[in-house]
Design brief:
With 58 residues, the protein is an all-alpha fold. 81% of the residues lie in helices and 0% in strands.
Length: 58
């Protein structure tokens, strides 16, 4: 019953993941490939954490 009111921690992580990918896209369009690659790597690491969290929660 109380699980109904608990928040999904992966939702906040997904929002951050989407923001990182959007920032990476803008960096790539500006020609800033170094920032693009750093942001993409950070987004991929975050995505791995999201998947791990989802597997733990079922």
């Amino acid at each position: 019953m109380f699980g109904l009111f608990s928040r999904d921690p992966s939702k906040k992580m997904r929002t951050k993941y989407d923001k990182l990918l959007e920032d990476a896209m803008h960096a790539q369009r500006r020609g800033d490939i170094k920032s693009y690659s750093m942001l993409t790597a950070e987004a991929e690491a975050l995505w791995e954490q999201i998947e791990k969290l989802q597997q733990e929660n079922g």
